[in-house]
Amino acid sequence: MNSDEAKKILDKVVGQVFGYTNPLTLEQEMQKFAFDVPLPQQVYDATDNSPTWASSVGQSRYVKLENARNNAASASEGLYAKVPINNVEELLDKWSRINFVTTEREIDSINIAESDNVIGSENVYRSQDIRRSKNILFSDGLEDSEFIVAGQRCGANTFCIRIEDSGECSNSFGISWSTRITNCLFIHDSADMQDSMFCSNIKGKRFCIANMQFTEEEYNHIHKQVVQWILTPSS
Q1: How far apart are the first and last CA of the chain?
Q2: What is the rounded distance in angstroms from the CA atom of residue 113 to the CA atom of residue 126?
Q3: Which of 53, 56, 141, 172 has a beta carbon 3.0–4.6 Å from 40's, enabling a disulfide?
């Protein structure tokens, strides 16, 4: 996974959610849509001073997962030759020599970049705590999801941007604490909504705006303006 591949995923998600060609760069997207999402931060591997990415920052020393698995003790399953430890000071000295926080951790995953704590996933970029998911950008705490940009604490969603604490949603933007949301913008605390925007605490409606019922024609007219506003880089 590299920035070019990530941009292709971003373009596909924006096209699916908004129906327009994506005008945003990766950096613009991150600043505009993922500004409040906890993301891995760049730190440096203490063994070779190379840049790496960690979900837990503020530690003293880091090591990439690859380097941690290929250290001087790798041939003996992580064990070094035993030396005497006579007191706490000596113990702490030995501990300090191997006390690294592992970064870029992944298990059973492929094509992962600038991410940490990824399990059973594919095509993940600048994200953390991802489980069984594919094509994920700038997200934290996702599982069983695909084509998500700027998601937090979610599961079982597809093609969503800025979604948090929600499940079973698709083709939507700005969703929180909701379920079974389709083709919607800015929906909070709701369920079973379709083709609606700026609604909260409502269920089972279509073509609603600000919890008011509109015709399909009226809805589409306003929807187009809102999408253009969302995709304006400076808005």
Answers
A1: 29
A2: 6
A3: 53
